[in-house]
Amino acid sequence: MKFLDQAKVYLRSGNGGPGALSFRREKFVEFGGPNGGDGGRGGSVVIECVDGLNTLIDYRYQQHFKAKSGGHGMGRDRSGAAANDIVMKVPVGTQILEEDNETLIADLTEVGQRITLCKGGDGGRGNAAFKTSTNRAPRKIEPGWPGEERWIWLRLKLIADVGLVGLPNAGKSTFLSVTSRAKPKIADYPFTTLVPQLGVVAVGSREFVLADIPGLIEGASEGVGLGHRFLGHVERCRVLLHLIDATAEDVVESYSTIRNELAAYDDGLANKEEIIALNKMDSVTDDELETKVKSLKSISKKPVHAISAVIGENVEPLLFALLKIVDDSKAAEKAVQEAEEQSLAGEEPSTWQP
Q: Least enclosed by CB within 10 Å: which of 71, 155, 235, 268?
């Protein structure tokens, strides 16, 4: 299945059915009166967030979604049938934007979330609805109300705990394949990874989701290489794992290049918590490795993990460090959510700590 993270679609809800103009005509029944039924409601267009999807590829081959109109009313006070709604299923992390591709309508981050984007038109009233004490035989009916139509953009931002960033050939795909069951393409040339890849990483009895983002190069924020198109997929990550190739001549330049591109894309992304890993430690001498680790520590002011994804050296401690940050982030998020709920309930936030 191909990966597609953006699609433009046209939506149109159904019109309401018209009301009926009818009178009761039976033998031995004088002045039967009006009995025209109301029209049925038109179908709406609904978007639902479901589990089991990780791409918008379904909207690559069908871009138009039009709901049916409601049925017309009939005699004997029979109402028209309501049309079925169209339910569009999208993966978790899908954003819905207006036609300008900037105005956010909704952000679907949980399974089961639903939003009605185009409401079906209401059915028109039949002449039975207009009967009054002074107007016993009304000939007035209503046509169905029109539906709605609009163009929208669907944009997918993968939800992962850890985002994997780095220059091309830094070993990101190898790291993903070693630590999870994902099977990304691995080769000895740049831009092997053309679309984001997800993998579930097992750490002891725990798990977290790792996203491998296609390699960035200098000028990516201006559209060079694959550009910054896929950087949106790491916006939701709790921590970034920055992989650097230990065989590079200048690891400090490699680090600065990615940091500059992250900052150029979004300050919030550049300010995310980050763990630095110097990969391919088995391909350089000990002295060279020590020098490069010191250089990275001095510029980043952060600890640097020296690893080798191919042989698995020092990978497990790195995974536990990532898991700790993920757990801390989830705990902080939960505490904020509980404080907000208590505030809405009119209670004082709890200050007790174990």
A: 268
Question: Of 267, 219, 216, which is closest to residue 244 (Cα–Cα)?
Answer: 216
Closest Cα to residue 194, out of 168, 171, 220? Answer: 168
pTM above 0.90, yes or no: no
Residue 334: what pLDDT?
83
Closest CA to 267 of 235, 226, 241: 235
Tokens in use for 117? Answer: 């984007």
Confidence of residue 189 (pLDDT cuts 50, 70, 90): very low
Q: Which helix (H) or strand (E) holds 153?
A: strand 149-156
Residue 191 phi, psi (nearest 5): 55, 40
Residue 247's pLDDT band, with cuts at 50, 70 and 90, is confident
Contact predicate 120/85, CB 8 Å:
yes
Q: Please give the DSSP secondary-structure letter assigned to residue 72.
A: P
Q: How far apart are the first and last CA of the chain?
A: 48
Distance of alpha carbon 257 from the chain centroid: 28
Residue appearing with tokens 């984007």:
117
What mean pLDDT is predicted for residues 16-31?
A: 90
**Pairing outcome for strands 114-118 and 64-66:** unpaired
* DSSP 8-class letter at 230: G
H or E element in which residue 334 lies: helix 315-344
Three-state DSSP class for residue 121: coil
Confidence band (pLDDT; 50, 70, 90) for 2? low
Q: What is the DSSP string of 200-222?
A: EEEETTEEEEEEEPPPP-TTGGG
- Give the confidence band of 266 by pLDDT, cuts at 50, 70, 90: confident
